[in-house]
Amino acid sequence: MTVCYDDKQRRGVVYARTLPSDWSRASESVVFSRCPPLTSDDLQTHRSDNPVYRVCIFHPSPPLPANIPAVFPRARVMAAYKLVLIRHGESCWNQENRFCGWFDADLSETGAEEAKRGGQALKDAGYEFDICYTSVLKRAIRTLWLVLDSIDQMWLPVHRTWRLNERHYGGLTGLNKAETAAKHGEAQVKIWRRSYDTPPPPMDPEHDFYSAISKDRRYGDLTEDQLPSCESLKDTIARALPFWNEEIVPQIKEGKRVLIAAHGNSLRGIVKHLEGMSEEAIMELNLPTGIPILYELDKNLKPVKPMQFLGDEETVRKAMEAVAAQGKAKK
């Protein structure tokens, strides 16, 4: 673990692969944020090819060592815009550890509570929005409803699009990790889950959920090329970014305060684009469910500081622990 200071912002910053066990004893306000791999220019003593967590501990006004360089030069740039993203709360199929993708699973009770807590965090911070975007899957739509209800802004315009849907898991849809490994082998499943551009096997017409997805009338206007039978993360990002560039970006540049409630992989696409993350780095990024993510952007829509997870300390801590546990097989 390495500690350094930003003398402009007067904050201590801890870079760590895991959360410090004694973090909760700190009397300062604690904010967690997620960052891509650091460069030698950022921090001379830190070396890592893997993403790490950044824990910002804000001090009232501490004396700062004169010889410690600032590590967030872009934080001195004034933010022109703010953007809030939120991954939907836990779904019933998340709870059962099943590949969900385009199957329209609803929120679990836990997921609904996560969404409400996310809304409360936004309410406590005084956030107001002008326009909202979500997918056409009910777990994201309901998350947005619960958030808007919590902040008493249910009247806001909401735009739904299939382009913000979760990654289509094809033939894996409905299987849990144990079933998938038994059917296809653990080595192959690891490739499907961790490769950036290798899709899972396609969903054929005999699949249990083929009709429920491919024949659903919400996708009736999609062309044959647009309606996937499976997707890699690369495919998911490729169909999400046109909507981002053509629909969302103009709203942000007009000064609209935008809220996006979507899915882990479609939101990864936006994050990758905003931060210029590598394929390797984006594969390691797991966004926690139900936690609002704040981006402060300059006039060119580049982040002026790292993404921030909004919420009380205990909620953020649990979300970080859940992120660390993601990908572990459940029997």
From TrEMBL:
Catalytic activity, as annotated: (2R)-2-phosphoglycerate = (2R)-3-phosphoglycerate; (2R)-3-phospho-glyceroyl phosphate = (2R)-2,3-bisphosphoglycerate + H(+)
UniProt: substrate binding residues: 87-94, 139, 166-169, 177, 193-194, 264-265
One Pfam family per UniProt: His_Phos_1
Listed EC numbers: 5.4.2.11, 5.4.2.4
Site (Transition state stabilizer): H263
InterPro entries: His_Pase_superF_clade-1, His_PPase_superfam, PG/BPGM_mutase_AS, Phosphogly_mut1
Domain of life: Eukaryota
UniProt entry tagged with the keyword Phosphoprotein: yes
Annotated GO biological process: glycolytic process
GO function terms (MF aspect): bisphosphoglycerate mutase activity; hydrolase activity; phosphoglycerate mutase activity
PROSITE patterns hit by this protein: PG_MUTASE
Keyword match Transmembrane helix: no
Active site: H88, E166
Assigned keywords, A-Z: Glycolysis, Hydrolase, Isomerase, Phosphoprotein
HAMAP family, per the entry: PGAM_GpmA (MF_01039)
Family indicated by similarity: Belongs to the phosphoglycerate mutase family. BPG-dependent PGAM subfamily.
Listed name of the protein: Phosphoglycerate mutase
Gene from which the chain derives: pgam1b
